[in-house]
Amino acid sequence: MAHDGAMKKIVIIGGGITGLATAFYLQEYARGAVDYTLIESTPRLGGKIASAHENGFIIEGGPDSFLAQKTAMLDLCRTLRLDDQLIGSNSAERTTYVWSRGRLHPIPEGMMLMAPTMVLPFLRSRLISWHGKVRMGMEMFIPKRVKDEDESLASFVRRRLGAEALDKIAAPLMAGIFAADPEKLSLQSTFPRIPEMEKKHGSLLRGMMEKKRAQARHGSQHKCPPMFMSLYGGLQDLTDAIFAQLHPKSFRLNCRVLTVRPHADQYRIALSDGSCILADDVIFATPAYVTADLIQQIDPALASKLRAIRYVSTATVSLGFKRSDIIHPLNGFGFVVPHSEKRKITACSWSSVKFNHRAPDDCALIRVFVGGARAESLAEQDEAALVHLARQELHAIMGITATPVLTKAYRWHRGNPQYELGHRARITEIEQIAAWHPGLHLAGAAYHGAGIPDCIQSGMKTALEIVKKLAHANSTYRDVPLPVSIQA
Ligand SMILES: Cc1cc2nc3c(=O)[nH]c(=O)nc-3n(C[C@H](O)[C@H](O)[C@H](O)COP(=O)(O)OP(=O)(O)OC[C@H]3O[C@@H](n4cnc5c(N)ncnc54)[C@H](O)[C@@H]3O)c2cc1C
What CATH number is given to the structural domain containing 253? Predict the structure, then answer.
């Protein structure tokens, strides 16, 4: 390793938000006194964050928003002076619909995740049958689970609220976020508060009611903060802003990392342009299956554990229409489609309602989701087939027959990591093995959360670990101030 006083060499593999956040915070914490190179295989930085501006539309290819509750994204925006660009989702139109038995049903008011907390709107709703409603109401009397081990979303919901609540609410809304199969999705790793609530209150309904009462006591229901946030010009403004802060010599685009091998007490990173770099620290901000291939020479057992993290393919299709061509009132954020409906799309966002500035005033932007764990092959079709499929489904569900004024499809081959049963234990094991290799760091969506704020947090934590380690060996890095979100 480089000795005290000598600059350590750091290589970051992958220029998505995780790699970019790592680079940014390395620069910040080490106050510029750090020698790093970020290597990205494609010609652009941002990874799955991709916003396109076309004819007055702002189209998001991957993520379109982030959860405001998780603060790492907000903190980063403030540091980058993007806070005046932050926009909230349109709270006045926050209804989400569920496609069921030939029509769109609004999710009843008061539904918190999958638990109804308001009696009348729930009873009046035609989304759930009377039998299903009675079964959901019985949740209060179902004894809590004694076992402490991980449970799938499907098993939990079926056990506590019944099969209909799973099919029509929990699976499309909650497993849908992860493009996951609810029978395999780990509750502990995706919605840890739900099993905790069962443990504490003996019932999800009682827990949610208690939460609602606590919110009312603190007056927070009046503020009704936006659930989702984005940036005025699209989320790529974030990755572009980080890019603008990076030293021009600190990144290489269009350059794929081929292998990472031990070399004396460093790592030798071979690149697709024929060159190689020696590094003291290597951050893998790549999907776990890419990291597995790169790490194979160093630790085949670790590689095999990383490969066990499954990824599924998804696609998004954005269609712009003249507003006058759509009869539907577009009075909400969009809809989800239960698997039992056997349709070809899983969800649809009314993007120009969810956020302002997404379409010209006389137009509407609609985004359709295809693929995921239970319909992967649909997402692998070419762009023309995806657009055709999206138009057919919008015709069947929303009655839209007009020709769109804009179409754009994005395919995300193996784009979504799956947090399957036992995920937490698997990641603990992976991190324990990785810790045997000083200087190797794993970061990104595969481990402790796949949302943008989670990825930023992961990059930030990695940068901090490295700078703290450097501080022990080199006086340049001492007295690094800890950011608030890490202290917490
Ligand atoms: C369709 C879709 C919708 C989503 N919606 C939301 C949302 O609304 N809100 C939210 O918070 N999250 C959402 N997510 C999740 C979120 O977008 C991702 O988890 C996050 O962007 C992943 O960032 P990352 O940097 O870890 O990975 P990536 O963005 O995948 O970046 C990895 C980078 O590594 C590069 N790379 C790969 N191999 C190599 C190599 N050998 N050498 C060099 N570089 C390499 C890739 O080109 C890529 O740029 C969504 C994801 C998808 C797919």
Answer: 3.50.50.60
Predicted confidence (pLDDT) per residue in 88-137, tens digit? 999 888 899 999 999 999 999 888 888 888 888 888 999 999 999 999 99
Ligand 1 centre from 92 Cα, in Å?
Answer: 30
For 366, phi and psi rounded to 5 degrees?
A: -125, 135
Q: How far apart are CA 387 and CA 409, in angstroms?
A: 7
Q: How many domains does one find in the chain? A: 3
CB-ligand 1 contact for 65 (6 Å cutoff): yes
The reply to whether 255 and 356 lie within a common domain is no
How many helices (H) and strands (E) the chain has is answered by: 20, 22
Query: Is there a single domain that holds both residue 315 and residue 412?
Result: yes
Q: Which residues, given as ranges, of the chain have pLDDT below 70?
A: 1-6, 219-225, 474-488
Q: How far is the CA of 436 from the centre of ligand 1 (A)?
A: 27
Question: pLDDT tens digits for 234-280?
Answer: 999 999 999 999 988 999 999 999 999 999 999 999 999 999 999 99
Q: Which of 382, 400, 417 is the last residue of a domain?
A: 417
Instruction: Output the pTM of the full model.
Output: 0.95
Q: In the structure encoding, which two tokens stand for residue 91, read together?
A: 């709270």
